[in-house]
Amino acid sequence: MILYILRRILYTVPIALAVGFVCFMLVQIAPGDPINAILPADAPKEVADMLRRAYGLDQPLPVQFWLWLTHVAQGDLGRSLATGRPVTADLANAVGNTLVLAVAAALIGFVAGSVLGGAAAAWRGTAVDRGAIGLAVVGVSIPHYWLGMVLVILFSVLWPILPATGISSDGSGSWAWDMAHIPHLILPAVTLAVIPTGLIARTVRGVAGDILNQDFVTTLRGKGLRPFGIFRHVVKNAAPNVLAVMGLQLGYLMGGSILVETVFNWPGTGLLLNTAIFQRDIPVLQGTILVLALFFVAINLAVDILQTAIDPRVRRG
Amino acid sequence: MGPTGAAPPHPDEIGGPAQPLLGVRGLVKHFPLRGGWLGGARGVVRAVDGVDFTIRKGETLGLVGESGCGKSTTSRLLMRLLEPTAGEVILDGQGVGAGGLGRRDYCRQVQMVFQDSYASLNPRLPVEESIAFAPRVHGTPAREALAKARELLAAVGLEPAQFGWRYPHALSGGQRQRVNIARALALRPRLVILDEPVSALDKSVEAQVLNLLCDLKDRFGLTYLFISHDLNVVQYMADRVMVMYLGRVAEIGPVEAIFGRPAHPYTAALLASRPTMDPDRRRTEAPLSGDPPNPVDPPSGCRFRTRCAHAEPVCAVTEPPLAPLGDGHAAACLMALPGSGHSRAPATTEAAHAA
Amino acid sequence: MPPDSANPPGAAPPLVHARDLTVRFVTRDATVHAVNGVDFDLAQGEVLCILGESGSGKSVTLRALMRLNPPGVTRVSGTLRVGGHDMVAASARAVADLRGGLVSMIFQEPMTALDPIFTIGRQIRETILRHEKVSGAEADRRALELLELVQIPSAKRRLAAYPHELSGGLRQRAMIAIALSCRPKLLLADEPTTALDATVQIQILLLLRQLQRELGMGVVFVTHDLGVAGEIADRIAVMYAGRFIEEGPTGALMRAPLHPYAQGLLGATVHGQRRGTPLTTIPGSPPNLERLPEGCAFAPRCPYTEPACLAAVPAPRRPVPDRAARCIRVPDTAQPPAGIAA
């Protein structure tokens, strides 16, 4: 088992390298000159050339990639073109904020989705099923930035019990577990949780429904197990598949919250990306995309290992 | 497709009636077992591990054995659905493969009927189209192929006007298996491999299909390789029987010899494992204990020794060759091999013949 | 098809008592008449084999005995008592208490009938803990005993094994161990040897016979295989289109079946017929269970059909005590005190 985990981790190295190369290249291919974006339109050409040399943008691409990679390996993602601050520090703060939001949204989504989907599977074909699945469809169909604005209007304007935007009421730009921050988390987390709720509900219903149709469930009923006893078996059998979808969703939540973070002015990776894109801030873009992609790889690795731990049939030397 | 009666010689006939239709020499198929370090192989499944036999023209060779004995792999190797690891196949004197008979010519002469009647038909084609498909691929004009398909439907007992346009899901299991038989016959093959053709059918339908297979064999001058786990069915259908165990031939011979005087203890155990329909003659003891071992790591020497009541130390070191017992009967058992060192081995060759 | 007065004073009540047992599957699209009036009694320690082809209703009948047919679409009527409990009217909770305790079941495919990601030991243990107030350690000890009872070698190690780590024969033995874990009075077996190799099948049949005798269980065994029935059954009931069309002691029924369908089935089964002689076959195919014919369901395929066959479903007729067949050609000479289907 330990050997398997080690091997699995080893496999992720080339994947991570490829991810790094792709996000490096994507930014290179994108149109627009980053130097022009930070200089005023009437800046002399010599200044632009000098800046280009200073940032290494005049070197051939492979050299740029190699330079970038060696720096990345040392935790140096360069300096932002727009602010001049080190990318790593800004990114660390943003990743921390997004992680809080994503994990909160994931918890809400996974719990609500599992309950809805589980109920739909247990009472398949009844009103419970139709109601739960109707909710799930609404969840995946609603544009979440619109839902965010509606929630703000409802709970911050019409019935002001929660703050509308920002991460804190004391002006700090990073997260802390105190009463100045926690109320700020509720609306964005709920907004962000709606899509995963719907997806998880549908997945759980499908997976649990398939399991309930399997022969061994008849055996369990034949042994006299009560619904709760059967439930335990269904949960463990459904876990590998449901975990895979959950891992994917957590990955999306880490990077896919640009719109929601913008609506709620949440200083996370989404907001960082948004700003970087408009300013053509290549080091920030590269760094952010790389970190998000590596998160994806790490989550997949974790899901793989969890699946292997749960299901003895996929266990390998 | 002539009317009923003795079939005329097949157009592909070359070697004369005495030459075996199919010869198999040293056939081996090992499947690599994935999942080793860095995705490499961590061993092989010895599905078929050195098999020799012949099928005579016009006979039915029955092939029996339990799961993992290699009977399905053998059939797929003969159909060239799998590439053998080693060994050669000879069809009517011609080698098959590089330098010999081409794949296309070979497949025209050797056809197969599978156990799963539904999975082996295209669900989106009317059955007559399925039957006509192979002849069209082999160059028969569409109209002619369809006409021939309808003839074949009639030959397997399905009214073409009533069944030809139907899709597989609209037929019963027995009817679908009839369609599969018609499909296998469409290229006018010489050898038909029947891989558990009646195992998925109900008893009353099984009898219908077995009767049909006997009819068709006479009518079209076919040769059968009949694979089944049901010894009663093999006894009824086969002229000769081959028993396989863990990728090797345990015993081969005329059906009367195999069922009447089994020489290999495994064959005897298989026969004795058949449930009886007479409650007064029930078994009191199982002939064998345990399941067949895993073909990944077969026992040394005789592969059957781990379940054999007569195993002796010599069985662990000597791999028994097929010992001839006369009349084409042969068994891979040291007890049948004169001078093998087993205490029950016949002393001389004469003794073996007298047995 | 025993007479109504099946309980002469003083005799033990039958383990299973079924009268006019009917099972339909009702969906929006169709109603399938799977079981259409089955009557039988099973004494304690008796082995009844229900023999039939696919779609005959044999498995549905078996599952009805512990109410295991799919809930929601299943409609059961008639009388069904198992160990004195009314299995038609009892609450779901009461039935769940009986399952695995009084009555338990083994299935055709042990690979899919066992939970793939729970060890064999846990699957036995949870059955014991469900029905008996014992400690976990006691349940584990019993689980080990059970694996030894079903003759699984190195039982202790096998407790920790997952189903896919066992061979087909061992998996079926483990399935039997689970079914026996609370000493049931009635064991239901749904083609438990069909998926097994020949040399393994006979081992499992012998094991079941031995356990049945040692534990004194009643067994209802469903199969399509006459040979399997011959090895295990005291009595055989042949089922066709949801009815017992013939019932009798194994030997007598096998030697001289009364009903034309049973005769056809025996004739069509290959067992030592001479090569070259065509096998007897039954023409046609079984009836559509959504639209059963009036009268005898076998009439459309029967070589002896006469107008009376089509008028009404033939009542069981008894040529000798202990045997019965639903065919009007069978003489009714051993009329019991009161016919049940009258």
How would you portray this structure in words?
The complex is a heterotrimer of chains A (317), B (355) and C (342). Chain A has helices at 2-29, 34-38, 45-54, 61-73, 87-122, 127-141, 144-158, 182-212, 215-222, 227-255, 258-263, 269-279, 282-310. Chain A has 317 residues and is mainly α. Chain A has a single domain (87-314), classed as Orthogonal Bundle (MetI-like fold), CATH 1.10.3720.10. The model of chain A has no long low-confidence stretch (mean pLDDT 85). Chain B has two domains: 22-243, Rossmann fold (3-Layer(aba) Sandwich), CATH 3.40.50.300; 267-276 and 285-354, no CATH class. Chain B is an alpha/beta fold and 355 residues long. In chain B, helix 3 (127-137) crosses helix 4 (142-155) and helix 6 (173-185) packs parallel to helix 7 (203-220). Chain B contains twelve helices and twelve strands. Chain C has helices at residues 58-64, 92-98, 110-113, 120-131, 136-149, 155-159, 168-180, 198-215, 226-232, 250-255, 260-268, 307-311, and strands at 16-26, 31-42, 47-51, 74-82, 85-86, 103-106, 186-190, 218-223, 235-240, 243-249, 324-325. A seven-stranded mixed beta sheet of chain C has the order 6-7-8-3-9-10-11, with helices on both faces. Chain C has a four-stranded antiparallel beta sheet with strand order 2-1-4-5, with helices on one face. Chain C is α/β, with parallel strands linked by helices. Chain C has a domain at 43-73 and 82-270: P-loop containing nucleotide triphosphate hydrolases (Rossmann fold, 3-Layer(aba) Sandwich), CATH 3.40.50.300. Classes of the chains: A mainly alpha (317), B alpha/beta (355), C alpha/beta (342). Chain A: The chain crosses the membrane at residues 9-30, 99-123, 135-162, 182-201, 242-264, 284-306. Chain A: It is a multi-pass membrane protein. Chain A: Keywords: Cell membrane, Membrane, Transmembrane, Transmembrane helix, Transport.
